[in-house]
Write a sequence for this structure.
């Protein structure tokens, strides 16, 4: 069995994709998967479902959701449920099942290690595999800032969203190191549209455009980020962006060659 959280929650069993039809049951399953192999207390589960506004029979309702969830996860020919009652709450045993939200950070860590060793081809493969796991916002809840999320789901969604951004940034860096700057341009424009305050993406896009013989476009990107930061935060771009702008204005030829080529690797 495979649990997928990097998008709307679904359970994959063989060739079948299953999803719960009840939002509260889905939230219970989400929290138990986020804390797989760890006990989640009744209080934590109720806070995720109802926040501070608990209904009168919240505990009884939660027991019903757990019962429904056990039936939903029942595997043919198996007498055991992955959900165990253990004081002060419940634990979902992962066993041999897969969870995509555990696979994703593992692949990112592997890619990061290859990047540190300047093995850029291997790093790209890991980062691309990691990003391919995503089907939409975490659990389909819209990610960070969704009011319906409790503290466990909210913290989990925020962590994964930040890790995804880091992964995208490292992937772009690898492509630049490998001289695949034209390939990186479209990706970086899209990332900037989604994350207009992340200066690293502007720096990477400026470099990719300059190496693609689009010096004017690279300088327009600098003016764009400068306006955005000025209007939104009253700030000037950071030193790395300012230094890159000056180097592009000066026609620095060293910028045209990826460091990978300069080092002879």
């Amino acid at each position: 069995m495979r649990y997928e959280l990097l998008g709307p929650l679904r359970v994959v069993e063989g060739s079948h994709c299953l999803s719960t039809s009840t939002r509260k049951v889905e939230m219970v399953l989400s929290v138990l998967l986020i804390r797989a192999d760890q006990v989640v207390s009744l209080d934590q589960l109720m806070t995720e479902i109802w926040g501070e506004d608990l209904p009168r029979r919240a505990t009884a309702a939660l027991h019903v959701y757990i019962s429904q969830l056990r039936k939903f996860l029942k595997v043919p020919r198996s007498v055991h449920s992955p959900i165990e009652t253990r004081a002060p709450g419940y634990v979902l045993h992962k066993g041999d099942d897969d969870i995509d939200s555990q696979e994703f950070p593992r692949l990112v860590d592997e890619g990061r290690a290859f990047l540190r060793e300047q093995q850029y081809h291997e790093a790209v493969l890991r980062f691309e595999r990691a990003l391919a796991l995503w089907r939409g916002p975490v659990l389909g809840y819209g990610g960070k800032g969704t009011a319906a999320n409790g503290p466990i789901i909210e913290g989990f969604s925020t962590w994964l969203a930040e890790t995804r951004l880091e992964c995208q940034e490292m992937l772009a860096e690898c492509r630049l190191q490998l001289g695949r700057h034209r390939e990186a341009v479209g990706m970086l424009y899209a990332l900037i549209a989604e994350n207009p305050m992340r200066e690293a993406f502007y720096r990477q896009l400026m470099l990719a455009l300059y190496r693609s013989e689009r010096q004017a476009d690279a300088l327009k990107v600098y003016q764009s980020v400068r306006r955005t930061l000025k209007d939104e935060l009253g700030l000037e771009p950071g030193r790395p962006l300012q230094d890159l702008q000056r180097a592009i204005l000066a026609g620095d030829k060293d910028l045209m060659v990826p460091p990978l080529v300069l080092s002879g690797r």
